[in-house]
């Protein structure tokens, strides 16, 4: 197993873990309506989107030239 494959596996696993906790936090923040809660919702959604992008690159669906 080469170093690049190991790093892709670690990146994919890390992206799944972070996305899980970001979605969990987003679910818990959803009923709140204060301004700082709205900012938190946007940040959690963007974090989840970033994790989805990292995961697609890690499995080879995106990022190829």
Structural features, described:
The radius of gyration is 15 Å and the shape is elongated. It is an all-alpha fold and 65 residues long. α1 (3-29) packs antiparallel against α2 (35-58). It has one domain. The chain has two helices and no strands. The chain has helices at 3-29, 35-58. The mean pLDDT is 93.
Terminal CA distance = 23 Å
What is the number of helical segments per DSSP (H or I, 4+ residues)?
A: 2
Q: Mean of the pLDDT scores?
A: 93
Whole-angstrom Rg: 15 Å
Helix content: over 70%
Number of strands: 0
Characterize the biggest β-sheet: none
Q: Assign the structural class, choosing from mainly alpha, mainly beta, alpha/beta, alpha+beta, or little secondary structure.
A: mainly alpha
Unreliable runs: none
Number of domains: 1
What would you call the quaternary organization?
single chain
Short description:
The chain is mainly alpha-helical.
Write the layout of secondary structure elements.
Blueprint lengths: L2 H27 L5 H24 L7
Helix pairs in contact: 1-2
Which descriptors would you attach to this protein?
65 residues; mainly alpha
């Amino acid at each position: 197993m080469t170093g690049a494959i190991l790093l892709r596996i670690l990146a994919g696993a890390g992206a799944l873990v972070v996305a899980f906790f970001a979605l969990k936090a987003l679910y818990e923040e959803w009923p709140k309506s204060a301004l700082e809660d709205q900012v938190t919702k946007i940040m959690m959604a963007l974090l989840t989107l970033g994790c989805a992008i990292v995961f697609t690159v890690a499995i080879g669906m995106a990022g190829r030239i």
